[in-house]
Design brief:
The protein is of the alpha/beta class and 541 residues long. The protein contains 19 helices and 15 strands. A 6-stranded mixed sheet has the order 1-2-13-12-10-11, with helices on both faces. A 5-stranded parallel sheet has the order 6-5-7-8-9, sandwiched between helices.
């Protein structure tokens, strides 16, 4: 790149650089090719977006499908809640979490065998797992109060691996089951497997279990009737993808020994900054505008998240749900088909320079990159970090290389017409994690207003759950038919069930049953050369 181009970029950097020292975050959009006129043209729409966000924070009904308010912003500043009752609930719950964790830490609450808890198993899915996992990975250390484990799926093999890692520590493991409704099947399955595992060891699951759930939910009743150690609330005005600073995320983080007050302060301070309508000082508003610019307001380019920090490796998974579940909508607020959304993927730098950066630079230009830069090399004290103390070359440390790879990748992409944004934080601390969570939450909210969609409902997720329930119901019918002595191909069994139109689903069910010996279903090929779809299924003789 010639000197004149570099000077032009430097001037753009200076003109649009947002340095929020109050929250320890900076935003650089100089590698986005927007014009100053674009920012001027978007001012009216941005003003309307700010007004809508103000109404939301004041308690307007935002989740219209369920007639609910959306109040995750109140979690870090309860005084802003629209009623004194909600303020009291938030404050008292935070106190309850801290009191409970102190009792666990002091050994005032012990396991059935009168042992102090050393491990915690968190069972959840989606927003009930992604946030806690991200925070645990970002802020965990050898000094953690409890060793953390997670069930975040209904995969038996995955659960077996976690239970193997827990091993002999099971009798000292506290299990936290997180489900707002209590009916989420993946979480319920994980709970039942865990309960059976405790029972096999002669342990009472209830004396090791805590629930985070909605008041009066199925899980709430179950925990109460089985005398679980404690129950913490999930409020209907907090969605899963914005629940990390509720009981969902605060309880696991506090158990691990993470400074939850620091996380809350970071988010609270970031909220104060990102409420300001001044674009020159508001990183969330600028992010929303950049998303609008790069995708022409239609999500035409994917968002690649590249944090140059191992601790932030799970940030892309966390943001996938926050961004994609919030913005991926078929209809806008007027009922028009718009098929909106921004696809999110990523891993970490500089690992990705040896993975998919080749395509980012020279392949399909259907993305923009969001770099996350961390200025401080190590989370350890300088004299305790061997990795940062050693010079790998004269005057050069590992962290200098990491920064060099970030800057080099950013330049190489831009030189080939690939645009990017950089968010910079000073270091990975609880406060900084709270800041990142809040800034992205606000950016999502503002962008949703710019494109006139509702960010706070998820009809597609509900449709998937209903479809899965229909498959499970058909599975039960297939098993009943086999137990009745029926043998035949998938087509024959489907016909016997009156499910001819669902023959493909019946075939998938039968093939899976036959692959698992414990189900005692046999799959017999019709002939050596016959296609697998003509196989005969039946119970073992």
């Amino acid at each position: 790149m010639d000197k004149q181009s570099l000077e032009t970029l430097w001037n753009k950097y200076k003109n649009h650089f947002i340095d929020c020292r109050r929250i320890g975050l900076a935003l650089d959009v100089s590698r986005m090719n927007f014009s100053d006129s674009f920012l001027v043209e978007m001012k009216p729409a941005l003003r309307a977006a700010f007004a809508a966000m103000t109404e939301l924070e004041n308690g307007a009904i935002a989740n219209i499908d369920e007639n609910r308010m959306v109040g995750h912003y109140w979690l870090r500043n309860a005084k802003r809640a629209p009623s004194s009752e909600i303020t009291e609930e938030i404050d008292s719950n935070l106190d309850a979490i801290k009191t409970f964790v102190k009792k666990i830490r002091r050994g005032e609450i012990k396991s059935q065998n009168k042992k102090k808890f050393t491990d915690a198993l968190i069972i959840g899915i989606g927003g009930s797992a992604l946030g806690p996992q991200f925070v645990s990975s970002a802020l965990g250390s050898a000094k953690d109060r409890l060793t953390m484990h997670f069930f975040d799926n209904t995969d038996p093999d995955g659960m077996d691996r976690v239970l193997e890692r827990i091993g002999k520590s099971l009798s000292r493991t506290l299990t936290v089951v997180i489900s707002k409704s209590g009916g989420t099947k993946e979480t319920r399955n994980g709970m039942l497997i865990t309960q059976a595992t405790y029972a096999a060891k002669g342990l009472d699951f209830g004396r090791h279990a805590v629930a985070v759930t909605g008041s009066g939910s199925e899980l709430d009743h179950f925990a109460q009737s089985h005398h679980w150690i404690a129950r913490f609330p999930m409020w209907d005005w907090v969605g899963g993808r914005t629940s990390e600073l509720s009981s969902v995320g605060l309880l696991p983080a506090a158990l691990q020994g993470i400074d939850i007050d620091g996380m809350l302060k970071g988010a609270r301070d970031a909220d104060a900054v990102t409420r300001k309508p001044d674009l020159c000082e508001n990183p969330a508003a600028m992010l929303a505008l950049m998303w609008y610019y790069i995708g022409d307001g239609k999500g035409q380019k994917d968002m690649v998240i590249l944090p140059y920090k191992d601790r932030l490796m799970l940030l892309s998974k966390y943001l996938q749900q926050l961004v994609m579940e919030s913005l991926g909508k078929q209809l806008d607020r007027s009922g028009q088909v718009v098929n909106q959304g921004i696809a999110v993927y990523g891993n970490k730098g500089s690992t990705d320079q040896h993975a998919y950066v080749q395509q980012l630079r020279e392949g399909v230009n259907n993305f923009f990159v969001t770099f996350i830069e961390v200025l401080k090399s190590s989370a350890m004290e300088e004299n305790a970090s061997m990795a940062e103390a050693v010079e790998v070359e004269p005057g050069i440390h590992c962290g200098d290389y990491l920064s060099g790879f970030y800057q080099g990748t950013r330049s190489a992409l831009y030189e080939n017409g690939r645009e990017s944004i950089t968010l910079t934080i000073d270091e990975v601390t609880p406060r900084a994690i709270g800041v990142l969570i809040a800034v992205f939450e606000r950016a999502v909210g503002l962008y949703a207003e710019l494109i006139n969609i509702n960010a706070y409902h998820q009809p597609g997720v509900e449709a998937g759950k209903k479809a899965a329930s229909a498959v499970i119901a058909l599975h039960q019918k297939v098993m009943s038919q086999l137990r009745a002595g029926t043998r035949g191909t998938a087509e024959q069994i489907a016909s016997a069930l009156g499910e001819r139109s669902n023959v493909e689903t019946v075939f998938h069910i039968l093939r899976r049953l036959a692959a698992n010996p414990g189900r005692k279903v046999v799959m017999t090929a019709a002939s050596e050369d016959a296609p697998v779809t003509e196989s005969v299924f039946g119970l073992e003789a």
